[in-house]
Amino acid sequence: MPAPRKYPPELVERAVQLVIEKRRNEPGRSAVVREVGELLGIHPEVLRHWVNKADGGVGRGLREPAGDAERVRLLEEENANLRRSNSILKSAAVIFAAEIEHGNSVD
């Protein structure tokens, strides 16, 4: 039985994308993986492994997505994640509003 995953797949994907974007925007910087790892609470070597795996192998430079189809797929996936998050936040807002309303009517 494999060990349980410590990080959700959405976090892994977003962390890798952040590294790729930062390296594209700041090509001379060498500490990007460490900075992103610290920002997201991920050990830099774990993040470096994810980035290399996403790139197709250790030691190869990061490359852009394969093309428009890949970019569209990634954007659609991100859109779905954002819609899910938005739905959760809306539900939480309704619950908190009900609690506030209930609390005010008791006084």
TrEMBL record:
Coiled-coil stretches: none
Q: Where are the transmembrane segments?
A: none
Q: Which domain of life is it from?
A: Bacteria
Q: What is this protein called?
A: Transposase
- Native species of this protein? Streptomyces sp. 900116325
UniProt lineage = Bacteria, Bacillati, Actinomycetota, Actinomycetes, Kitasatosporales
